Amino acid sequence: MRPNLSKKQLSQISLSESCKAIILGSLLGDGSLKLYKPYKNARFWIRHSWIQKEYWDWKIARLSEINTKRSNQVQSPTGYSKQKKLLFQSAALEKLTQIYNITYKNNRLYIKRKWLNHMSTLSLAIWWLDDGSIIGNGKRGVFCTDAFSKKDHQLLQRYLHIIWKIDTKLGILNREYKGHTKQIYRLYLNNQALKKFLVLIMPYAPIPSMIYKYCILYKDPNLQERWISEMLVAFPDWETNIRESIQNRKLKLKYFRK
């Protein structure tokens, strides 16, 4: 059960619930709040690759109350990527500074239940579309929140379990970084948890080009049809898109070519 948050500070900030939901979900994913000197107020930033333009357009269309005429920018390819980048930079607003003061500490995102509790299903959908992936031959899920600490992940894991009844497993990976081995952490969802989570969030982010983020894959035709039926509850007009996305994903995996 979600706690009553009506009297909490974050609830009193005069932004729409959808705007706050997108900001909070993005903070766990591809967004950030930044407070630069000499400005006294924070800005909200989002950056996506060009191939996610439809998703970016959908997201920033819901942030009109914090934008300016210069908020939407296109960045040229860099040495790290040949793709252009899409950048959203909000106005510098006191309302965003209030959120910054709740979610940041020493200029770093601070994972705490006091603001995670304000996340909605839309927030979860944004987090998934930013940093979630379906893995394990299309049957399991993962949040690639590599920048967060083990303690951060444990807080996120407990939050998902208590508030949303979604169980995850904390995984550890070793990555080479500047000649050293670095441990990173991720949250994994088994098939049952992934299905439960996607059924929860799908209706809140209907974006055709991101449909692959919801496509769980099965070899068993009956199980596959059951999942397609679940997707059609959220996206009743997208059957062709759903079936094509599933088929295209299966063609890329050896598991389904055997």
From TrEMBL:
UniProt organism field: Bryopsis hypnoides (Green alga)
Protein name: Endonuclease-like protein
Source taxon at top rank: Eukaryota
The Homing endonuclease LAGLIDADG domain, residue ranges: 21-197
UniProt keywords, alphabetically: Chloroplast, Endonuclease, Hydrolase, Nuclease, Plastid
Annotated InterPro entries: Homing_endonucl (IPR027434), LAGLIDADG_dom (IPR004860)
MF GO annotations: endonuclease activity
